[in-house]
Design brief:
With 409 residues, the protein is of the alpha+beta class. The chain contains 13 helices and 13 strands. Keywords: DNA damage, DNA repair. It holds the Pfam family Nre_C.
């Protein structure tokens, strides 16, 4: 996160908006944590008890692999359907502000226990892995030995609130497992096949990630807890490859189109043009936006054979929405995705919003154009940053080498 000078914070004290943000993130974090900590019951031995319904919400950490943290997030004293709002990604999109999301997530208490990644089946009797794929929120209780008042942000996974090491975690309700996942828990098939089967049967995307992360899928002898960050990338890659393998056999689109959507200070433009599949990913970070002091641009290319310059989680999340659209219309295309990140995006809340915003963009066509140059010029005109897309390495190379793809026609 870009650091606001301490001198400015001292002058502002959270109410003058001297940093230019719509509200003070420090105060929002403080309010959320205090709200949570006030609901933590402490007994005479200083052991802390937290009870509530998990939305469901849980994380498998990666630090210390192969001995990792298993974290169950509980909103104190919040039960039943009310708990769902704390991790309702599709329900949040377009409705909740960045501040709303931070406030919700900082109101969760994280209960952590250490597990070895091998043989997660041994943990099934705790029902924690089953609780995180439940169709309904599940009441849980955690007995904490420690409690640390810190809000943890991440660029890939959702932020989480204060938490600590758990002496004991109990799932008090019976999880309601989707029938398709329940069947695969007992099946002995490769995890890739299981992920694709769930996706083809329209199981919630984020539930698939949880199922893989908590060791519920795959050959039984090979099942592992998978750190959540890795599971997100694995599911994006697995489903992306499945869609890619299908669309490269389709005919090309015959028009040049631009799509658009924005959320949380992130603006996405997607250009589709007649070509064999290839893709360009451009990120434009404004000054004072997350991670960047100055205007910063990053670029990535993926060719017809599915080879990209480097693995980027944001690109994999964005790519999915476009591939889903191309599979829907049974066509292939050249793709340019331009993500513009403004100063409104001051805290990372995970890459889910990239995935969902691009999915929504593909339902919002803003125009058709006679040439790729015209489409790029239109996107350039709509950008808030004063840049020339035609001067970028990836765009310049694409325009000069487009005739290579004509070889495949």
């Amino acid at each position: 996160m870009h650091k606001i000078p301490a001198e400015l914070c001292i002058k502002c004290k959270g109410h003058k908006n001297l940093c230019g943000l719509p509200f003070c993130p420090i105060m929002e974090r403080f309010r959320g944590m205090i709200s949570s900590l006030q609901k933590v019951r402490i007994d005479s031995s200083s052991i802390k008890f937290v009870e509530g319904s998990t939305p469901p919400s849980a994380i498998v950490g990666e630090k210390g692999y192969p001995k990792v943290s298993l974290i169950l997030n509980i909103p104190p004293s919040v039960y039943g359907e009310e708990a769902r709002k704390y991790e309702d990604i599709k329900g949040w999109w377009g409705k909740l502000s960045l501040g709303d999301i931070i406030k919700l997530r900082s109101s969760l208490v994280s209960s952590m226990t250490k597990v070895r990644v091998e043989k997660p089946i041994e943990y099934y009797n705790t029902e924690i892995p089953l609780a995180v794929i439940s169709d309904t929120p599940v009441t849980s209780e955690a007995k904490l030995k420690t409690l640390e008042a810190k809000l943890k942000f991440d660029g890939v996974i959702l932020p989480r609130g204060p938490g600590g090491t758990a002496e004991e975690i109990k799932v008090k309700d019976n999880p309601k497992i989707p029938t398709k996942i329940d069947k695969l828990i007992f099946d002995d098939i490769k995890s890739v096949e299981a992920v694709l089967e769930l996706y083809k049967n329209s199981i919630d995307y984020y539930k698939i990630i949880h199922a893989l992360s908590f060791g519920l899928l795959g050959r039984k002898k090979n099942r592992r807890f998978v750190p959540t960050r890795w599971a997100i990338t694995a599911v994006d890659s697995t489903i992306g490859k499945y869609l890619y393998d299908r669309i490269i056999n389709y005919s090309e689109i015959n028009e040049i189109e631009v799509y658009y959507a924005s959320y949380l200070g992130n603006h996405f433009h997607v250009i589709l043009y007649p070509s064999k599949f290839n893709a360009v990913w451009i990120e434009i970070w404004h000054p004072l936006s997350l991670w960047s002091k100055d205007l910063t641009i990053s670029e990535l290319k993926e060719n017809f054979w599915g080879k990209y310059e480097y693995l980027d989680g944001g690109y994999m999340a964005a790519r999915l929405g476009v591939l889903e659209y191309l599979e829907k219309i049974k066509r292939q295309a050249g793709i340019i995705i331009v993500r513009e990140i403004t100063e409104e995006y001051f805290a990372p809340v995970g890459n889910w919003h990239i995935r969902e915003t691009v999915r929504n963009a593909m339902n919002n066509k803003i125009g058709k154009y006679d040439s790729l140059l015209e489409a790029i010029a239109e996107v350039n005109k709509r950008l808030k940053a004063q840049i020339n897309l035609l001067e970028l390495r990836t765009i310049n190379s694409l325009l000069k080498q487009r005739s290579i793809y004509d070889f495949f026609k």
